[in-house]
Amino acid sequence: MANLLGVILFAVFILVSVSLHEAGHMLTAKAFGMKVTRYFVGFGPTLWSFKRGETEYGVKGIPLGGFCKIVGMTPQDDDVEPGDEKRAMWRYPVWKRTIVMSAGSITHFALALGALWIMAVSVGLPNPKAPTTTEAFKAEPAVIALAPCVVVENANRACQAGDPASPAAKAQLKEGDRITAVNGKPVSTWGQMLDVVRGTTPGLATVDYVRDGKAATATVDLAAVQRPPLTDPKGATSAVAAMGVALRPTTPQYIEYGPIDAFGATADFTGSMAVQTAHAMQRIPQKVPALWNAITGGERDMDTPISVVGASRLGGEFVANDAWYGFFMLFVSLNFFIGVFNLLPLLPLDGGHIAISWFERARSWLYARIGRADPGRVDYLKLMPITYAVILIGGVFTLLTVTADVVNPITLFPR
What we know:
The chain is of the alpha+beta class. It has helices at about 1-30, 95-120, 135-140, 165-170, 190-200, 260-295, 310-320, 325-340, 350-370, 385-405; strands at about 35-50, 55-70, 125, 145, 180, 185, 205-210, 215-225, 240, 245, 255. The protein has two domains: about 95-130 and about 260-415, no CATH class; about 135-245, Roll (Pdz3 Domain). The protein is elongated and about 90 Å long. The protein starts with a helix and ends in an 8-residue tail after the last helix. It is a multi-pass membrane protein. One of its GO terms (cellular component) is membrane.
């Protein structure tokens, strides 16, 4: 039930984001005097609507987005009524059209930045100095957090009834103890401790540790578990020893900020997110074979793109596991990605309309400088084959991601 609630909640968040995107277009267009005839949330049959002034507002039956209709977006549009010619969008200065067309993405960026600022002052943002790779975690000091149990088989799952209790907990070790030796073999890092414990025969072992600055020794009955080699997580498993502990990083994973400092932290985090988003977009064509492999029965690559369906499913997992931080960070990442993607200079995206507007402006300026007549506006009808190609490619890619998210979804939490 909690998972379903999370799925619905995240889907609602996405719908609100997209609706605000369209509201950004509408409000800026109205502010400049352009004529907006319709603003609807959803697609398909109209469920409810009302008209205020010259604009009809309403809700449609398929809650998969929204739209607003601005009169005369292109010179080829035939929706301009007599008397409204001067209010057609394409007749306005290029800078005004740019603001209107970019307002949707700006709305997504504002939602992401606002959410990040709230997180920065309430629960904190990820610490850029915290370990993020396996090797970095292995280099952390061997400070332990107690696991509630030991999972004997090689499975990434939560503890269940019948799993043996943590040997470290039974030996009265505590959270924050720093392990210094196992059976007399000194260790200083988490990676060294794992190597020594894995190389020790299951059974009684002496464990030296430091607690509150005082050295002590405990006798721990190491459990026998099945694990792959540390150097090859996908390799064949074998019987090794386990202490029933996890790493407690000494470097804080998150940092909380004051209201003023949070602006700088939000900007820094947004810069890192922009770089990651650019890299992710560059890798999209390379991930298509991996998506197809996931659909046809292969293992789902955690780094493959996800659809709105996949994002909503992950939102459900976050809620079901009480991981609200991940829920809101997913909301931030998705809004930032949509904002960037929508500015790509391709029709029918907003970025395509912006690119054409500035191309027209640059071409008019150039022709004026060389003494030639202004060639006028771009004929959108001649660009329709390219537009259809973009729509087709985008549709196929969306179908691939949705199918993969249904038949072989990415799962972040053990089941």
